[in-house]
Write a structure and sequence with these properties.
Layout: E1 4-5, H1 19-24, H2 42-47, E2 58-62, E3 65-68, E4 74-76, H3 79-95, E5 98-102, E6 105-108, E7 113-116, E8 119-123, E9 128-130, E10 138-140, E11 147-154, H4 162-174, E12 176-178, E13 185-186, E14 194-199, E15 208-213, H5 214-234, H6 250-254
Parallel strand pairs: 11-14
Antiparallel strand pairs: 1-7, 2-3, 3-4, 5-8, 6-7, 6-12, 8-11, 9-10, 12-13, 14-15
C-alpha cells in the first residue's frame, strides 16, 4: 500500500482517524481476481503470509486454481501468473533471500506518515552502481555479510513511477515497525541507502530485481513533506471567518 499521512506526531495512531482502518485491513486479503480480470491478484498472493518464500509454499495446481499450503485455500490462477510466481521464487532462491518481516506496518512520527511494507529481507548484495546516470552516482561495495533490506513487489510500470517508488521505499526504511495491538514502535534495522524492487509485470510471467536509490528517495521524501507543510500553511493564509465589509454586529452598531 502507499503512504498515509496522519499529520501530527503522537505516541499512538488515532483509532478514529482514516489511517487506522486502512492499516488494519490485511493487504493480501481477499485473494481473488486481478484488476484486469485475469486470474488472481498477483501482488496479493505474493505478499500473503502463506507465500512468504514464494512458490515453494504452494502445494499444486488443480483446474486453474492454486492451493496455499498453510490454509488449504484454493484461488484462481492463470498460466502467466503461475510463471510469475515461479520466476519470483527462482530469484529469491538465487539471491539466498530470507524473509524477516512480511506486511509489516511502518510509522514515522517525525514526518507524520504510516504505511504497510511488503517485505524486510535478509540478503547479501553484490557490488552495485547506484543512481546510474545521475549526479549522485556511486559504486556501492559488495556486502561482506547478509544485511536487512526493504523489498517491495511491483506488478505495474516501474520506469514511469521510479521517483515515487524510491520515495515510498525510503519512507519504509526510515520508519519504525508499529504494533497495531499495543501501539509500540521497534526498529527493523534495514539499511537506509538501498532497497530492492521485485518487478513482476502483470501477465508477463517474469520477475526482475532492481536496486532502488534510497538516498535520492529520502531527498524526495523530505521535499514532499515540505510541500505538504507548505500547503497546510497556505490553506490558512485567507481567513474566511472574517468579512471586513460585512454588516456591523449589534455591539458595533450600538457604539
Amino acid at each position: 500500500m502507499g503512504l498515509l499521512s496522519f499529520g501530527v506526531s503522537r505516541r499512538r495512531l488515532p483509532v478514529e482517524s482514516s489511517v487506522m482502518p486502512k492499516l488494519c485491513e490485511p493487504a493480501a486479503a481477499p485473494l481473488g481476481a486481478s484488476p484486469n480480470g485475469g486470474g488472481l491478484g498477483l501482488h496479493a498472493v505474493l505478499v500473503s503470509p502463506s507465500v512468504v518464500t514464494g512458490a515453494r509454499r504452494l502445494v499444486g495446481i488443480v483446474e486453474r486454481t492454486i492451493l496455499l499450503a498453510e490454509t488449504g485455500e484454493e484461488v484462481p490462477i492463470t498460466a502467466t501468473d503461475l510463471a510469475s510466481i515461479e520466476a519470483y521464487d527462482e530469484r529469491m532462491t538465487r539471491l539466498g533471500v530470507k524473509v524477516i518481516e512480511s506486511e509489516a506496518v511502518i510509522v514515522n512520527d517525525e514526518m507524520g506518515y504510516a504505511g504497510r511494507l511488503d517485505r524486510i529481507i535478509m540478503v547479501r548484495l553484490p557490488e552495485l552502481v547506484i543512481g546510474k546516470g545521475t549526479p549522485g552516482e556511486y559504486v556501492r561495495p559488495a556486502d561482506q555479510r547478509a544485511r536487512r533490506y526493504v523489498a517491495d513487489i511491483k506488478s505495474g510500470r516501474v520506469d514511469l513511477g521510479a521517483g515515487k517508488i524510491a520515495r515510498q521505499l525510503a519512507a519504509y526504511a526510515l520508519g519504525d515497525l508499529y504494533d497495531l495491538e499495543t501501539g509500540e514502535r521497534s526498529r527493523h534495522s534495514a539499511v537506509r541507502d538501498v532497497a530492492l524492487a521485485f518487478h513482476l509485470p502483470q501477465g508477463a510471467g517474469i520477475c526482475t530485481v532492481h536496486p532502488v536509490d534510497l538516498k535520492a528517495g529520502t531527498t524526495l521524501l523530505k521535499l514532499s513533506a515540505e510541500v505538504r507543510r507548505a500547503r497546510n500553511t497556505g490553506r490558512k493564509t485567507i481567513d474566511t471567518t472574517v468579512d471586513i465589509a460585512g454588516p456591523a454586529s449589534d455591539e458595533e452598531a450600538a457604539e
